[in-house]
Design goal:
It comes from Paenibacillus artemisiicola. This is PIG-L family deacetylase. InterPro entries: GlcNAc_PI_deacetylase-related, LmbE-like_dom_sf. With 253 residues, this protein is α/β, with parallel strands linked by helices. It is built from seven helices and nine strands; from the N terminus they run βαβαβαβαββαααβββ. Strands 3-2-1-4-5-7-6 form a seven-stranded mixed β-sheet, with helices on both faces. Strands 8-9 form a two-stranded antiparallel sheet. Strand 1, helix 1 and strand 2 form a beta-alpha-beta unit. Helix 3 crosses helix 4.
Length: 253
């Protein structure tokens, strides 16, 4: 498969779904990581132009660890909006991959760049398959399924599917470690250890899914988005059981 994750900032994908992306890469699928903004406002003590350069380098180093192809969209941090030029840019980014599935932010995450990335991806996925919408790349030739990744800290997010990332949690932490500019600023300004966030949320989702570490996702249920097969990766110890949430709790399927 061809898997595309689109995050708002250079460390969002690593925080929320890098374990699953590393699983895809290990299993031989093609993985692409796209970032909407350049992250140039992410530190108070580094000039934006320099910080954008640093954060792009951090992102590319992270992609190399995961085994993903980077896509750098480069919009100004904190200033992303859902207008027509941006929508067509996202259409072309999706078309450049021609993915089987796209993973992105959900609609209720805390940051406006996250929410606008969600809107742009959701609007662009449909247009990406419309041939008469002209961009640099041709229209997608397949049904593109959309998954929302967890909110930061798992807040106000109810997964419907889980991925056991026990065998890739170390790779996820290593990828996050490439974003030294952000792990430092979260520690200095907020007294937050992002590596501990990954550990804690990974264990919490793992408790829900019946494994040591997991990542949670919600599959978009909308017209022309349904499939009869699972697209999220299955770990080596999961050949018999895949978990989903229902109104009655966690069930295997």
């Amino acid at each position: 498969m061809r898997v595309l994750a689109i995050g708002a900032h250079p460390d969002d994908i690593e925080l929320q779904c890098a374990g699953s992306l590393a699983m895809y890469a290990k299993q031989g699928h093609e993985v692409f990581m796209a970032v909407s903004t350049n992250g140039d406002k992410g530190n108070f003590d580094v000039e934006p132009s320099e910080l954008a350069r640093v954060r792009e380098a951090e992102f590319r180093a992270s992609c190399a660890i995961i085994g993903a192809t980077p896509i750098w969209l480069g919009y100004e941090d904190e200033m992303l909006i859902n207008d027509l030029p941006a929508r067509l840019r996202f259409v072309d980014a999706i078309r450049s991959v021609n993915p089987d599935l796209v993973i992105t932010h959900g609609p209720n995450d805390y940051h406006p760049d996250h929410r606008y990335t969600h809107e742009l991806v959701w609007d662009a996925v449909t247009l990406a398959g419309v041939g008469n919408v002209k961009t640099e790349h041709p229209a997608t030739d397949r049904q593109v399924t959309v998954y929302f990744m967890d909110n930061l800290g798992g807040i106000a997010f109810q997964p419907t599917e889980f991925v056991d990332i026990t065998e890739t949690i170390a790779l996820k932490q290593e990828a996050l470690a490439q974003h030294a500019s952000q792990t430092r600023i979260f520690r200095d300004l907020l007294d937050v250890d992002l590596h501990d966030v990954v550990e804690t949320v990974g264990k919490f989702r793992g408790y829900q899914a019946g494994c040591k570490y997991a990542e949670g996702f919600t599959k978009v249920e909308a017209w022309y988005r349904g499939l009869s097969r699972r697209l999220l990766p299955v770990g080596s110890g999961e050949s018999r059981f895949i978990y989903k949430t229902t109104q009655n709790g966690i069930e295997s399927i």
